[in-house]
Amino acid sequence: MPYMIETFDKPGHHDLRLQSRDVHLAYLDAHAHLLIACGAKLVDDGESATGGLYLLDVESRDEAQNFIEADPFHQAELFERVDICRWRKAYVDGKNLL
């Protein structure tokens, strides 16, 4: 069952995001089988990230929580807030899945 995880970076922590980025991407690569999609939320300049969005295929909220807590961004204390909720696949890649 899919879960959506939305993260919100602490203000002024852009350098920490950049310092942790490579190990974060390696973590995502190692767990790609769980990812429906994920990516950074960007400000209008298209350069600076303010957090992220993960669509994750796991069986429980606990698994989603464990996934994000093991993320190097989380372990580096980049996030000010993390929201987790169940997500319904309605349209994916232009296809109606309802």
From TrEMBL:
Gene3D superfamilies assigned: Dimeric alpha+beta barrel (3.30.70.1060)
Domain YCII-related: 1-88
InterPro entries named among the record's database cross-references: Dimeric_a/b-barrel, Sec-metab_biosynth-assoc, YCII
Family membership: Belongs to the YciI family.
Protein known as: YciI family protein
Originating species: Salinisphaera aquimarina
